[in-house]
């Protein structure tokens, strides 16, 4: 008797709006209502115990053919497709080069991982499902973790790529964020004719990009190799898509100092721009036009301007960019973003943040409860939810959500620091100190965590548990510099917390 299977047909809402998830911006034209990690959690909880194999089918690939991802409950492996021709061309403990040829081997796309695509190699490569669905041969260069490919064996890995694509008519290197960094830097080694780099970094080495503060724990942990992270050399002119309003614009300027490229600046599309491009239906044509060498940057910019007003990502990011003296405009734009893209995670989270800032805490919490349910308790959603609970003074509930996030992501120092504030507000001062100690242990090179730990210890000695109101406003600016504090905190709701000694 054939094994039973069940298919979840994914509607064209946008899981790629959730940053730092396994399938963010994974594929041109492909969007989902369930993240890979959520599917894994469902399997581990036995949600499909009577169905040995669960196929998740995307109904939104723009070519009209479904892209299938198979989850095998028995091995608890996700995204490992069994297909004719799949082959690991090169493998070490740090990097795997995985080839998945299509019937047409005259065109190849070489992809690189984005941040948080998942650790290890029992997973899919970046864009794997989409590239198979549209019949493009692909090689996925997969790193064991978020190391920006600083592996000494990368020359041998790229030699394997170059041999595999030798004789092809067109070879494209492709990546988003960390993957964009690699797509540019390894293009020559791959023998690429074209590069599509979306929201790439020049480097996140603090010595080279002192302005970059989004991946501090990683940037201080990684041993940067000059042969990989030195000045860029690239024989082709990459297509570089970026939002010039933030750090991505600074990275683009640094890249331009080393090589010539074809810039596609898109204001207020956030990071990574992959999310906006997919929502607007522009990612797939951009990929194909870059691969063929027929891209017209001016035409793409015109299409972008025409479509952006109906993009929840664009309108929401524009709302977040409004100055403090325009709160009504910011809120109106955020509401419009949700209206034009009802299940867009970025739009919903940003509207909730602005509602909290406006003192409408219960409205914000209800919206985030919907978001958490819609995205299967995705950790990104849970962070926003906990922030709103904290702003509303519902400290015990915020602590509970914080624990759930840390169970899923125990290795991020900024999340332990974030949890310390929740515990402090809930009058669990020793718990706050313990969380701050974990942050210090996880990020020994970051001086903000020891300062915070010292402040918690100092304040615990003098704190009166009965008088815990009043100075949160003084703390707000410092806390917003701590990664992970997503939603704005209400100075009237967040209890008095220790002020780090900024002179130490």
Model description:
The structure is a single chain. The chain has 504 residues and is an alpha/beta fold. It is 43% helix and 13% strand. It contains 21 helices and 12 strands. The chain has helices at residues 36-44, 128-133, 154-165, 178-185, 187-190, 216-221, 226-229, 247-256, 273-279, 283-292, 297-307, 312-320, 327-340, 345-357, 361-374, 379-391, 395-408, 413-425, 429-442, 448-462, 472-480; strands at residues 5-10, 53-58, 67-72, 77-78, 87-91, 95-100, 107-112, 137-143, 170-176, 194-198, 239-242, 262-265. Strands 5-6-8-7-9-10-11-12 form an 8-stranded mixed β-sheet, with helices on both faces. The chain has a 4-stranded mixed β-sheet with strand order 1-2-3-4. Helix 18 packs antiparallel against helix 19 (429-442) and helix 19 (429-442) runs antiparallel to helix 20 (448-462).
Count the E strands. 12
Q: What is the rounded distance between the termini? A: 70 Å
> Helix fraction?
40-55%
The chain-level structural class is alpha/beta
Strand order of the largest sheet: 5-6-8-7-9-10-11-12
How many H/I helices? 21
Instruction: Return residue spans where pLDDT drops below 50 for at least 5 consecutive residues.
Output: 1-83, 464-494, 499-504
Cα Rg: 23 Å
Q: Any idea what the shape is?
A: globular
Largest sheet: 8 strands, mixed
Kindly report the average pLDDT value: 80
Estimate what percentage of residues fall within beta strands.
Answer: 5-15%
């Amino acid at each position: 008797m054939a094994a039973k299977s069940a298919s979840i047909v994914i509607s064209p809402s946008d899981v790629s709006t959730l940053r730092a998830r396994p399938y963010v911006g994974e594929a041109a034209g492909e969007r989902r209502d369930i993240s890979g990690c959520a599917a894994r959690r469902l399997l581990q909880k036995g949600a499909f115990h009577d169905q040995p194999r669960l196929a998740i089918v995307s109904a939104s690939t723009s070519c009209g053919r479904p892209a299938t991802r198979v989850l095998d409950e028995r091995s608890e492996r996700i995204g490992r497709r069994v297909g004719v021709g799949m082959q690991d061309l090169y493998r070490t403990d740090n990097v795997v080069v995985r080839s998945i040829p299509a019937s047409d081997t005259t065109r190849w796309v070489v992809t690189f991982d984005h941040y948080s695509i998942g650790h290890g190699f029992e997973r899919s490569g970046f864009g794997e499902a989409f590239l198979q669905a549209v019949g493009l041969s692909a090689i996925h260069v997969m790193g064991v973790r978020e190391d920006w490919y600083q592996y000494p064996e990368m020359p041998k890995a790229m030699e394997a790529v170059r041999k595999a694509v030798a004789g092809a008519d067109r070879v494209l290197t492709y990546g988003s964020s960390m993957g964009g960094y690699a797509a540019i830097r390894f293009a020559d080694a791959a023998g690429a004719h074209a590069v599509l780099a979306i929201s790439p970094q020049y480097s996140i080495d603090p010595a080279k990009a002192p302005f970059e503060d989004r991946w501090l724990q990683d940037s201080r942990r990684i041993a940067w190799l000059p042969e990989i992270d030195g000045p860029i050399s690239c024989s082709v002119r990459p297509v570089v898509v970026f939002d010039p309003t933030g750090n991505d614009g600074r990275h683009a300027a640094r890249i331009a100092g080393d090589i010539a490229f074809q810039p596609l600046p898109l204001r207020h599309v956030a990071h990574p721009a992959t999310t906006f491009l997919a929502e607007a239906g522009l990612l797939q044509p951009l990929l194909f036009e870059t691969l063929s060498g027929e891209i017209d940057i001016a035409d793409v910019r015109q299409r972008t301007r025409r479509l952006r007003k109906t993009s929840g990502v664009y309108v929401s990011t524009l709302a977040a960019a409004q100055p403090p003296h325009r709160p009504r405009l910011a809120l109106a734009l955020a509401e419009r973003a949700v209206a034009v893209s009802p299940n867009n995670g970025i739009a919903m989270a940003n509207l909730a943040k602005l509602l909290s800032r406006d003192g409408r805490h219960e409205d914000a919490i209800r919206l985030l409860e919907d978001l958490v349910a819609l995205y299967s308790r995705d950790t990104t959603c849970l962070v926003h939810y906990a922030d709103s609970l904290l702003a509303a003074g519902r400290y015990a509930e915020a602590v509970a959500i914080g624990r759930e996030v840390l169970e899923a992501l125990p290795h991020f120092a900024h999340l332990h620091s974030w949890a310390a504030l929740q515990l402090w507000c809930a009058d669990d001062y020793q718990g706050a100190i313990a969380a701050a100690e974990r942050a210090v242990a996880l990020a020994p090179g970051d001086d903000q965590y020891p300062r915070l730990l010292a402040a918690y210890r100092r304040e615990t000695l003098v704190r009166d548990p009965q008088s815990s109101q009043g100075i949160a406003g003084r703390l707000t600016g410092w806390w917003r510099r701590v990664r992970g504090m997503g939603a704005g905190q209400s100075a009237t709701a967040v209890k008095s917390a220790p002020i780090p000694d900024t002179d130490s």
